[in-house]
Amino acid sequence: MLLVGLSYIQEPWATTPVTAADTSRDYLMYKLLQSLILSSTLMLATSVQGQGESEHFPQLPDLGDSSLATISLEKEAMLGRSFMQSLRRQLPFESDPLIEDYVESLGYRLAAGADDKLRFQFFVVRNKEVNAFAGPGGYIGIHTGLITTAENESELASVLAHEIAHVTQRHIARRIEENSQLSIPAIAAIFAAIAVASTSPDAASALLIGSQAGLIQNQINFTRKNEKEADRIGMQLLTNAKLDPSGMFRFFQRMQKSTRLYSREIPEFLLTHPVTDSRVADAQARAAQLGKPDNLNNLSFELAKARLEVLQMREGQVKQALYSHYKGQNTVQARYYRAMINLRQKDYIKAISELSELQKQFPSEVFINVPLATALSKDGHPKQALLLLTEQLSLMPGNHPLTMALASLYLEQKTPEKARKLLASHIRNHPVPRVYQQLWLAQGRSGKNTLAKISQAEFYVLLGDYRSARQHLKQALKTEDLNAQLKSEIQARLTEINQEAKKLRS
């Protein structure tokens, strides 16, 4: 089910991200995808991170230095786009901008220490199981369950660092290159099987048998040497980012312990990342050599974890959680958790009171300021909310959560032109479905229907729905009094989309 124009200023638990509609069906497809492609696999050489040049069309990706790749950059780029298109169509992404931004920031912080020319894209899948994975083109995803299970930021970062290391060391790219039989159609067949699974698991299985699934599975299995190398490089990335390298072996230990306690339900992480005693010992010894940073506490991690716990609650759990979880505690995390519960229960006065007190301690913390603005707006104080968000955005230009919250508030206050201008600039660095949705809503409400059609087309390209993308661009071409420059841009974009779709079919 696709929801148009989701408003971030409303409580995020009241919205549904762009995903398949049926939860059980999503899960089936998700497990299939994990077992064949994700599972820390198909990590190729470079990243495809689109940058937009204007409000109309995104800039073509910079494919980087060809000397870095062990397979062709064009093939890698196509695999990466196809990979993400399939995920966006089939999986429930966590679209809360605060959670997205936190994971991206942590990922880029780690990747910065890799001394590598690659660019990465990090994203979050809404799933309570503990796992992480990498895909073609440097795309790295984690489950929400990984965030809520990690006891500190270093544990969470250790998993991200491990995945980054697999990418930078070209583990899968090298093996794919060794077997010329592996092609874009072979990978695309797996994606097709995922789509078929939404209606017929048996048909999906048959399709997998006929799509060289065995060959692909053989190519994506990591060796023990690969795993140890990823651990070693990952721990160095943790140290470079001034994070605690012992987070890796401590996380391994906890996963092992959970296996012993719940032997019938092995954690998903261990199914895709086997942890042996020797691997834990190696990580522990290396951590002792690397040492610890001075400051291990991180406020953003604690707030992200508390926020996500509330976001993932079912309605019947919310009231009970207020009196059970963090009961009697007065830590910042506990106070924030209670504020999020109050906000979800629409007790805006209590939420404002708690968040305002926290803001006095941490005046620039976006995890506090964004929900505070939400509560103020919902409680009938939109001017205060606007002032708070605009002031904070002036201090942190381009901040994703602040921008999305402010744009949504502009739309609520019936000033869509302000939202349009803000999002048209923001889309250049955040060309993702959610931003395109908000942008086309703002464009439509501003009377710029042609631009709205173009944004809708780009949204469908991100989902791999080229047919719908072409339809929207063709509708845009029918606009009366369309100026020559924009008409030329639309026609050029149509040509690009046709070429991309053709390559994916070949």
TrEMBL record:
Biological role stated in the UniProt entry: Functions as both a chaperone and a metalloprotease. Maintains the integrity of the outer membrane by promoting either the assembly or the elimination of outer membrane proteins, depending on their folding state.
Annotated source species: Pelagibaculum spongiae
Segments forming domain Peptidase M48: 101-286
Enzyme Commission number(s): 3.4.-.-
Stored CDD domains: M48C_bepA_like
SUPFAM superfamilies reported for this sequence: TPR-like (SSF48452)
Annotated residues for binding of Zn(2+): 162, 166, 227
GO process terms (BP): proteolysis involved in protein catabolic process
Cofactor, how bound (note): Binds 1 zinc ion per subunit.
Top class in the EC scheme: hydrolase
Molecular function GO labels: metalloendopeptidase activity; zinc ion binding
Domain of life: Bacteria
Cofactor: Zn(2+)
Protein's name according to its UniProt entry: Putative beta-barrel assembly-enhancing protease
